[in-house]
Amino acid sequence: MHMNYVKEEDGWIFGECSECNMIMKFRKNTLRYEAKMGTYFFEEDVQCFCGAVHKFIAYAPIEKKENNIAGLNYSTPARNVPHCPTCGSENVTKISLGSKAVGGAMFGIFSSNIRKSYKCNNCGYKW
Description:
mainly beta; six-stranded mixed beta sheet; 8 strands
């Protein structure tokens, strides 16, 4: 069984379960892409919440290779943007040194900011 391709965004591939229509996302660099078929293959089978087992994401747009000098393929480097390990959002802020100092002065080692570097603005998780 397969998933249907939905979109690609910021290094993620979105696939829709062909049984329950639930959309799931996968890191693009963990999938094997077959250009001739326009298909992304999983390293291991993926089971949806409805119980359907999927082996690949089908119907992805076929990437066209551009003709360039000496056959070299230049691409833009991937963005190195921190994202929340809990919800995957890139809407994060760095916890300032001043905030850590104030929290440390008020609560000592029990401050929630003193050992953390980032805070997610979506779910509030700190890491």
